[in-house]
Amino acid sequence: MPSRTRWAVAALALPLLLGACAANGTGATVTDSPTPTSDPVEVETPEPPPAWERLEVGDLSVQVPPEVGVETLDDGSALLTVPASGLATDPLEVLRVEDGQATWLEDGTVTLAQGAAFGGVVAHPPTPGVRVTAQGTTVALRADPAAVSTDDVTLWVGGQGAQSMTWGIREGGRSLIVVPTDWARAAGAAGVEAVWAQMQDDDEAATTTMYDQLLCHGLGAPDKDSWNLEPWRPDVGLLAVLAAACNPS
Fold it and tell me: How confident is the model over 202-235, as pLDDT tens digits?
């Protein structure tokens, strides 16, 4: 090819080559990426569940969820109303004892221990198809799916077993006259344990025979005006105490 023709070709090709190099620095053709036109997706942050509310019951400090109704009684105990709509086959948490322990008892009641404070929970009146459970610091309700009641559940929470305990003389010997709270009379084993916790400060009262007499009264004669417990009565075992109508001799 004549030199003039080669220069003409070069003159025509050079601007094209320089333009390509300026575009990407390598001579390769670059295609701009399309600019997104869709709006960013807004993600809604779920609101945290409502905080549980603190409730003072006697010397106990407990917490209840906001959907549970609370009525404080004159003796310091409290009635909790749990809506039937909240019951399901999974346990429904209804109470927490702060820095303490909730313990389920064989009769279906629950004791609450928190340092020196002691109390408990009982379903009153009992609700068919619903039972009270406890684990750790939490009290819950468990519903039987085959027999769930449509009624609200009422739990009675007490923080004191005895409203008074005084020593007197009965049948010629010393007798501890225990006047239980209304809650303790209705609370079965939990009520007995709450009274027993108050008796621990007195060495004369905290004996096996006194406990058996207390249990006999609490489960067999809860409505008596007072439960009279005598430390001088023989330690003959619970069955013999029951057979002797709480007064073994």
Answer: 999 999 999 999 999 999 999 999 999 999 999 9
37 located within any domain: no
Identify whether residues 131 and 200 lie together within a single domain.
no
Query: What number of other Cβ atoms are within 10 A of residue 65's Cβ?
Result: 18
Q: pTM of the prediction?
A: 0.78
Of 241, 208, 194, 243, the closest CA to residue 77 belongs to 194
* The last residue of a domain, from among 158, 173, 195: 158
Q: Are 178 and 229 in contact (CB under 8 A)?
A: yes
pLDDT in tens, 20-45: 444 444 444 445 555 556 666 666 76
The 8-class DSSP code of residue 45 comes to P
CB 141 within 8 A of CB 81: no
* Domain contains 41: no
Instruction: Report how far apart, in Å, the C-alpha atoms of 185 and of each of 75, 160, 188, 199 are.
Output: 13, 11, 7, 16
DSSP string, 116-144: TEEEEEEESS--TTEEEEEETTEEEEEE-
| Pick from 115, 105, 154, 146: nearest CA to 129 | 146
State how far the Cα of 89 lies from the Cα of 68, in Å rounded to an integer: 18
Residues 6 or more apart in contact with residue 70 via CB below 8 angstroms? 53, 55, 64, 78, 79, 80, 81
Nearest to 180 by CA among 196, 204, 167, 169: 196
CA 101 to centroid of chain Cα atoms: 10
Residue 151 carries which side chain, given as an amino acid letter?
D
Q: Is 13 among the domain residues?
A: no
